[in-house]
Structures are given as C-alpha cells and as structure tokens.
Amino acid sequence: MTVFIHKESERRPDEASYDHIIPAGEGWMRDLRPGQVLRIVDLEGNQAADTLFYDTENPEDHYSAVQTIAGQQNIYLTTGSVLRAESGKPLLTIVADTCGRHDTLGGACSAQSNTVRYAHETLPMHNCRDTFMLQLAKRGDGYTKRDLAPNINFFMNVPVTPEGGLTFADGVSAPGRYVEMRAETSATALISNCPQLNNPCNAYNPTPVRVLIWES
Ligand SMILES: [Zn+2]
To answer: Among 128, 121, 135, which residue's Cα sits nearest to residue 195?
Structure first.
C-alpha cells in the first residue's frame, strides 16, 4: 500500500538563519550542527533534489539507503523517517513534509546511466554524479568519489510495481512543496539540483530549489 504523509511545518522563512536558492542543475554542500533544521523547497514543482548526507566528524560514515530502508521497513521517505548512516547512526529525522513521499532507490543520474536509460547522445550531458564530484572536490577535506553512495531523491516519484520493477513516473511534488529535517548529529548535506533533461520526474525541465536552515 502506498501511503503519503503530509505534515506542515510551523517554522517561518523570515526566522531562518540561512536562506539560499540552488539554481537548476547546480550543487550545494553545507555542514549542519546538531538540532539545526534544513528545509528544501521545490519552488516550481516536480524538481528532483539528489541528496547525500555525511557524519561531519567521520565522513566515511555516509548516508545509507539500506540502513535507512531496513530501519523503517519502508522504501519511501516521509515525515518520521530517520536517515541513517552506514553504521546505523541516525543522521537526520524528517520532521515535516508537504510532498509526502521521496525516493530512496532511483539513484543519481550519471553519464553512464543516461546512455543506458535514454540514448548514447546523452553521454556529455550534465548530470548529478558530475555535480556531486565537483562539490566534493571543492570541499577538499579528503572527500573523493569513494564518498559517493546511493542517494536520496527528494521530490522524485519512483514507484515500485507489484512485480518489483522501478518506474520513473511523473512527479508527485508541486510548486512550493517542501521537506524539512532535523540534524541528529553534526551532518554535512550535499545536494545536486538535478539537471536531467530526459526524465518525466522533473517534466524535462530542471528548476531551482530553495534551502533554508533554522537553529532549532
Ligand atoms: Zn540527476
């Protein structure tokens, strides 16, 4: 059964300590202190925000889809989901969500996946894996491609068929929908605001997302 859990937040944007727009196709990386709350807003609807998290003190302990899915026994993320690291440590908890469901299985687009899913001519197209790599390289601190792992696709709709197949479907998000999560430890967030032009998840039209941070 498919459950969508919509929960609004009482936090006000004018009280955020950080407010930033990630343009379509761009990346973003930032540290969160324990207790800080990160909101990602799908400004125009049906955008995919490919996201990874790291334990800031121990970046090798990155977000784990397997630990997260096994921990909550559900493949979709929504309010109440605990985002776990490889060690099982809780990194963040989703505390509000007006989209209602986010993908854990679809992964990030890459030059390779684009050619497999779409056409060989897509090989040189900008993709999320390149955006992640660029952000990790700019960060330094020993982050390398080893630190890329299967990521969360916020706002992306990848329903699983009764036969167990993955389908990249129309987005379930809409303009202004958001997901909000509280850091349970010092956590580093890495976002690729997906530049994908071949996929109905973002209506073939990448758009900006907004990130806000509150102190609690
Ligand atoms: Zn992508």
So the answer is: 128
Phi, psi torsion values for 202, nearest 5 degrees: -120, 25
List the alpha helices (DSSP H) in the chain.
65-72, 111-117, 128-139
**Centroid of ligand 1 to alpha carbon of 216 (angstroms):** 30
142 CA to middle of ligand 1, Å? Answer: 24
pLDDT band at 2 (very low <50, low <70, confident <90, very high): low
Q: Tens digits of per-residue pLDDT, 33-54?
A: 999 999 999 999 989 999 999 9
Beta bridge partners of 82: 93
Distances (CA, A) of 42 to 121, 147, 177, 202: 29, 26, 5, 11
Using alpha carbons, select from 61, 57, 86, 58 the residue that is nearest to residue 71: 86
Q: How far is the CA of 128 from the centre of ligand 1 (A)?
A: 4
Backbone angle region of 98, left / alpha / beta, with phi > 0 → left and psi within -120 to 50 → alpha: alpha
